[in-house]
Design brief:
about 375 residues; alpha/beta; Rossmann fold; six-stranded parallel beta sheet; globular; transmembrane; transferase; glycosyltransferase; membrane; glycosyltransferase activity
């Protein structure tokens, strides 16, 4: 049994936090003693933590101020391996591990397209972290764990990070027995009593997710009865709703907020759409595929191309092209719902928790052996 520590900012509703919670459970299933440490506070994903996983909260006002407290914790508690997630947390963890003499056991991970993600948050501390991270990645003893080949290559191509400074491990998106589980009951009224085709998307209401393009594409569909639901929270809620009003589709469009069971909603839909401008390895796309529901995705950097086998599993369309997106959605709504269903499910199976746990244990200095 190995003692493992996963370091996060908090347990908010983001994909990285969700995946680290799932990874903690999968690593525990593999026979390890796992602790989740939050630099600041808890969050919505705390409800999903495996009861066998230990929890520590440092209650720092900001991640950047957590270095002393984290260094003390690392000195007082010996772990066989440490894993940090997200760029600004990685920088904090590197500083604390250096101060505590535990740098040799630290592994950091990149969850998104670095060259794109660095422009998202304008906060000075975050921008500073993105400036420092590539230099630190060259100096630390263990390679950066990336969630896809695209994320790894982007880090190498756009920073001073070298090929030997990166490695790859898949996200633990799905339960090991996902094929045997029937989907839950959807909560949305349009999916509970479906009278017309329904398109579903899931994600933060942020520019990265391209929901403005999806709404534009939705308005261009020839069928006036199709409905669109986007599950998620974020700063663009009002802007997206106003766009739907301006395009005359507000009566067929809904922003119901965060859903605790996206698989149930997607499984009942007629099509799932990933409209992102960039990603790392889109978990929502994998989850949608696992239900067998038809999917359409943008050919965004990075992840969809790998997950969808260059478009062999499901359509890939250009980023920021509402016409192409509308055409692809129309085709999927026209085809029999079960067309290529098994191929979607089989492709999603790569991301089961047990397999992901092994790839992470291998990345954590060969701890799976």
């Amino acid at each position: 049994m190995k003692r493992l520590l996963i370091i996060l900012q908090d347990l908010g509703g983001g994909g990285a936090e969700k995946m680290m919670v799932r990874l903690a459970g999968a690593l525990t299933d593999a026979g390890n003693d796992v602790t989740l440490l939050m630099l600041t506070d808890t969050g919505v994903n705390s409800a999903c933590i495996d009861p066998r996983v230990k929890r520590v909260e440092l209650h720092s006002a900001r991640s950047s101020r957590a270095v002393p407290a984290l260094a003390r914790f690392l000195r007082q508690n010996r772990f066989d391996a440490l894993l940090a997630a997200l760029t600004h947390v990685n920088v904090v963890a590197i500083a604390a591990a250096t101060l505590s003499g535990t740098l040799a056991r630290l592994h950091v991970s990149e969850r998104n397209a670095f060259s794109h993600d660095k422009h998202v948050n304008p906060a000075l501390a975050v921008r500073t972290a993105y400036l420092l991270a590539p230099l630190l990645y060259r100096l630390i003893p263990n390679p950066v764990i990336c969630v896809s080949r695209g994320v790894a290559q982007d880090l190498v191509d756009t920073t001073i990070t070298r090929a030997q400074d990166v490695t790859i491990a898949d996200n633990p998106v799905l339960d090991n027995d996902f094929r045997d589980k029937a989907p839950g009951r959807p909560n949305h009224r349009w999916l509970l009593k479906k009278t017309t085709p329904v398109i579903v998307a899931v994600g933060r209401l942020a520019r990265q997710k391209g929901f403005d393009v999806l709404i534009d594409a939705f308005a261009r569909l020839a069928d006036p009865d199709v409905r669109l639901i986007i599950f998620g929270e974020g700063a663009l809620r009002t802007e997206l709703f106003e766009q739907a009003v301006a395009l005359g589709v507000a009566d067929r469009f809904d922003l119901p907020g965060y859903t605790s069971d996206p698989l149930a909603e997607v499984a009942a839909a007629d099509c799932f759409v990933l409209s992102s401008r960039f990603e790392g390895s889109p978990n929502a796309l994998v989850e949608a595929m696992s239900t067998g529901t038809p999917v359409v995705s943008t050919h965004c950097p990075y992840g969809p191309q790998e997950i969808l086998d260059n478009g062999a599993i499901a359509p890939l369309v250009a980023v920021d092209d509402p016409d192409a997106l509308a055409q692809a959605i129309t085709v999927e709504l026209t085809l029999p719902r079960d067309a290529n269903r098994q191929a979607r499910i089989d492709a999603a199976a790569r991301f089961i928790s047990a397999r992901a746990a092994k790839t992470y244990l291998d990345a954590l200095a060969g701890l799976s052996s």
